[in-house]
Structure formats: structure tokens, C-alpha cells
Amino acid sequence: MKKMLSYNDKGTWIHSLCGVTKLVYFLLWTITAMICYDIRVLAVMVVVSILAFIVSKTSFDEVKGVFVFILVFLTINLLAIFLFAPEHGSELYGTKHVLLTLTNKYVVTKEQLFYEANVFIKYIVIVPAVFTFMTTTNPSEFAASLNRVGIGYKGGYSLALALRYIPDVQADFTKIRNSQAARGIEMSKKASIMDRIKHTAAIIFPLIFTSMDRIDVVSNAMELRCFGKHKKRTWYMGRPLKPLDITVMVLTVAAMCIALFITFSNGSRFYNPFI
User: Fold this and answer.
1) What angle do CA 215, 18, 221 make, to 5 degrees?
2) 25, 106, 171, 217: least buried by Cβ within 10 Å?
3) Contacts of 240-245 spanning 24+ positions with Cβ under 8 A
4) Among candidates 65, 73, 70, 51, which has minimal Cα distance to 5?
5) pTM of the entire structure?
6) C-beta separation of 55 from 12 below 8 A
7) Phi, psi at residue 177, to the nearest 5°?
8) What pLDDT was estimated at residue 188?
9) Coil/strand/helix, residue 96
10) Cβ–Cβ contacts within 10 Å for residue 252, how many?
11) For 7-61, how does the pLDDT look when each residue is reduced to its tens digit (9 = 90+)?
12) CA-to-CA separations, 117 to 114, 217, 249, in angstroms, rounded
């Protein structure tokens, strides 16, 4: 089983960037995607996000499980939007072009489909950026980066520990699953979907107990080393900014400003091609 969303230095120029640079890119890119509802801007951002993901040499197998989960969640979310607010798109854009009438309440409009397409593309913009950030950033350097942008080192170190132990939790999951299979519990594709879901759910409790043991070991080790005694700390993995880091941050800020300028150029962040 390949580890998902774990750091692996593959020697690309993205890996060589400082953690602060990647954090700035990730935050500004995500904020811009959340604000923007201009499909022209989002389409360009999708291309850039996918290119960055490809350049990072991250294998799709490393993120496939998480991507499928996000895709299922997004599908349910889009269906829920239509079920609870079938004319939300028309209300936002101020126009209404009916394509199909299902019932008196549920009417499929161009505006609703266009709005939901924008929501879908937003996720496609953000998800590759998340994958790229998590698979190219050393957790210890990530903690140092958070501290450099003003976040307390305790909070930063907690997040870094969470990222660092994702591979360990996956390894524990694989060990427990193999142990279950050795006892005759079928968990492969030979079993039905419901059986696999039931047997996988049974792994959760031993996985939680294993993780709690690890938490206890780590917390005791940190306490023995007087972690948290001082207001500040130094960072072994902290790195200074290089010219490439400055260039990437400047380009990211410039791209954000251009995207927001285009988005709000018509007085609204909702671009309406149906006018």
C-alpha cells in the first residue's frame, strides 16, 4: 500500500522552495479560489494548479484514495445544493434561462448549472494545490514556516506532528488489515462492498488505540525535553529565503491581484455570461 499525502523529496524545484514560500502560495491560492466566481479566472488557475502538481512529480497513486473521497463528497455537495436551493444560481446572477422543468419546485436552469460548475472548478483549483503542498513540504520545515509567519510554535509543531504521522497511521492501518486477512477475514475485492465496509470499520478501534499509544509516547518525550517551557525556540529545519522563493511569492501575489481585479472588474464577483 502506497503512502498517501506524505512528504517525499523528489528533488524538484518545488521541493527546494522554503516552507514559507509554499505556505504563502497555498494560502493565497486558496483564498483567491474561494473568493472568485469568474470561470475565466478559475480555468486559468486550474491549469496552473495541475501543472504545479505534475512538476512536483507526485504520483496520482499517492493521492488517489483522498481524491476519490473528495470527488464523492463534492458530488453529494452539488446534489445537495440543487435539492435545497434549485434556483440559487438564478438568484445570484439575476437572470433565468430554463432548460428543464422537473416539478414546480425543481427547475434546471443554465444559471444553476453554471453556478455549480463554478463550485466544482473551485475544488479542482484547490485540491491539486493541497496535494502539492502536503507532498512537497517537510513537516518540520512546515512548523518552522508557521512560526515565521507569526503562529505560535506550539500550534505549528502540533500541525507538523499531525502531518508527520499520517504515513505511520497508514502503516498501522495496513498492518491491522493484513492481520485481519490472516485470520480469514476477507477484505479484498472478492468480498462484497458492504462486507468490505464493515470489516474496514472494524479496524478503526484498534487503529485509534494504536494512535493513542503513539500520542502518549510522543507527549512524554516532549515533556521530558521541556517542550513549551520558553516563549521562543530555534528550528533545525528552518531555511532562509532564496531568490527563487522571492520570485515565486511575488508572482503569487501578482497573480492574486490580477485574478481579483478581473473578478471584480464588473462590480460583482459573479461573472454572468448569460446577460
Assistant:
1) 20
2) 217
3) 240/18, 241/18, 241/20, 241/21, 242/18, 244/13, 244/16, 244/17, 245/17, 245/18, 245/20, 245/21
4) 65
5) 0.75
6) yes
7) -65, -40
8) 66
9) coil
10) 18
11) 778 888 998 888 888 888 888 999 999 998 888 899 999 999 999 999 998 888 7
12) 5, 47, 29
